[in-house]
Amino acid sequence: MDLALSPFLLSSTPYITAFIAGLMGSVHCIGMCGGIVGALTYGLPESVRSSPAKLLPYMLSYNIGRITSYTLAGIAAGHLGNLAGGYIADYQGWMILRVLAALIMITMGLYIGGWWLGLLRLENLGGHVWKYLQPIGQ
User: Fold this and answer.
1) Distance CA 54, CA 48 (A)
2) Cα distance between residue 138 and residue 124, in whole Å
3) CA–CA separation, 96 vs 94, rounded Å?
4) What is the CA radius of gyration of the chain?
5) pLDDT of residue 107
6) pLDDT by 10s per residue, the chain, length 138
7) How far apart are CA 30 and CA 135, in angstroms?
8) Separation of alpha carbons 133 and 76, rounded Å
9) pLDDT at 132
10) Distant-in-sequence, close-in-space partners of 123: CB < 8 Å, separation ≥ 6
11) Are 43 and 58 in contact (CB under 8 A)?
């Protein structure tokens, strides 16, 4: 039996790919989400931190919120990608998106390297939005 042509293998390829991407992304989650949870947990009173029963609601609410926000962001990104794909079905349109993505990556690299600070305008715009979001987060 040729595995390359196996219907099972062909139908499960997206799931295998998603599983591998999840494993690779777990390093990001440990580093970023773990640090955030550690900081938030350290900010709780000692009486809450020392009791697993009192700490459980905080951990559950954080993780449910994290999973929900990532799910909603993924749904939104997938939907927008699907809409864009409907309008840009030909090769030339996809090439334009690739070039645009490459330019964004180059711009980010120049910004992080300190060679071009044009993205400060975008950060300033985000700062105005943050003024309205910060009180909600507290």
Assistant:
1) 5
2) 21
3) 5
4) 21
5) 92
6) 455 556 665 667 778 888 888 888 888 778 888 888 888 888 899 999 999 999 999 999 988 988 899 899 989 998 988 887 777 766 777 788 789 889 999 999 998 898 988 888 888 888 888 888 788 766
7) 27
8) 20
9) 85
10) none
11) no
Whole-angstrom Cα distance, residue 17 to residue 19?
5
Query: By three-state DSSP, how is residue 2 classified?
Result: coil
DSSP 90: S
Residue 41, H or E segment: helix 7-42
Task: Please name the amino acid found at residue 88.
Answer: I
Q: Which helix H or strand E contains 84, and what residues bound it?
A: helix 52-87
pTM: 0.52
Contact 44, 58 (CB under 8 A): yes
User: The tokens of 138 are what?
Assistant: 């507290």
Token duo for residue 57:
């609601």
Burial 53-77 (b: 16+ CB within 10 A, else e): eeeeeeeeeeeeeeeeeeeeeeeee
Structure tokens belonging to residue 60: 């559950």
